Amino acid sequence: AASLAIGVAGGLVAAIGCILWSLRVLRRSSARQLISGNWLDPSASGGATGTSGQSTRIRAAGIASLVLALVLVAAAAIELLPPAAGFFGSGTLLLIAGLCALAAWLRSTSTTAFAARSWPLLRFGVRNARYRPARSVLSAALIASASFLIVSVGAFRQGADDLSAPDSGSGGYALIA
Q1: CA 106 vs CA 35, 62, 117, 139, 165: distances in Å
Q2: Model confidence pLDDT, tens digit, residues 88-108
Q3: How far apart are the first and last CA of the chain?
Q4: What share of the chain is helix, strand, coil (3-state, %, to 5)?
Q5: pTM here?
């Protein structure tokens, strides 16, 4: 009962925090913008490029995550950390660094990455991703973190002796998806 109550309380706190974090953007919008839906238009707020301060913070966070990931890899290599902790920690930090690099690239104003000679469908996809960079980074983050967790948990899974046994970790099924 205690763990259930703690879980409910933690879920409520996380939900309220998420709502407050989302509403901070709406606080800066006028009632007219909210009613007309103009707060959704990135061109109304200066485009999809973001401010230079925001770009600097994204780059700094990416570089810091990359450096910390290398420190964790080194600590795991000289056995100051358990291998699993070094792997998950450095993998998470590398994921954050990669997402910061993606966000910085999507927010950049450079259009030379895909010149006129590249495929039209590729240019269309990049233009769509740059239209709302936060949405694109969120989609990439969800897919990348799910892939990372699935692969890493599978890599560190303890081997089962007999997968066909009903009391094994797979419940008697030889294939696990």
Answers
A1: 29, 14, 20, 13, 50
A2: 899 999 999 999 999 888 887
A3: 32
A4: 70, 0, 30
A5: 0.61
